[in-house]
Amino acid sequence: MTTSHTTTVDLTRHDDDAAVPALERSCELAEQVADMLTLSYALRHLGIAEHTAGRLEAASTRLEQSVRLRRELGFAPGVAANLVGLAYIAAQEGRRDDAMTLIDEAGALAQSSGARAVFRTVEEARRSL
User: Fold this and answer.
1) How far apart are CA 123 and CA 72, in angstroms?
2) What is the pTM of this model?
3) Burial class, 98, CB count within 10 angstroms (exposed 0-12 / middle 13-18 / buried 19+)
4) pLDDT grade, residue 3 (50/70/90)?
5) 9-55 pLDDT, tens digit each
6) Three-state SS letters, 47-73
7) Domain-by-domain residue ranges, the chain?
8) Where do runs of H (alpha helix) occur along 3-95?
9) H or E segment at 104?
């Protein structure tokens, strides 16, 4: 099994302890070969791991880095997905207005890019926030 397959298995099992080192290595390798899309995915999943661990500032930093890369790449569905994560973090920090602004932007991006699955995630977040 390759490292990427191992990381995928670790993520689907929610085994952050096993997945995080592989994701950090993915970041290093993606930076070495200038693969910004792969880097954006690794940063996203590192952000999710930080969020799960309750490290909201670190989670925000990773997700914001991924958002920046995805905006540069024109990957609107990916930006929208990350904005949902940032909205949950903002809500946990007591910044409900910021959370709803992020959800509104995520919804607009998901809808305009035809990302129906992401749009459903946005609507679910909207209801729960």
Assistant:
1) 25
2) 0.88
3) middle
4) very low
5) 445 456 778 889 999 999 999 999 999 999 999 999 999 999 999 99
6) HHHHHHCCCHHHHHHHHHHHHHHHHHH
7) 1-55, 75-129
8) 3-12, 16-32, 36-52, 56-73, 76-92
9) helix 96-112
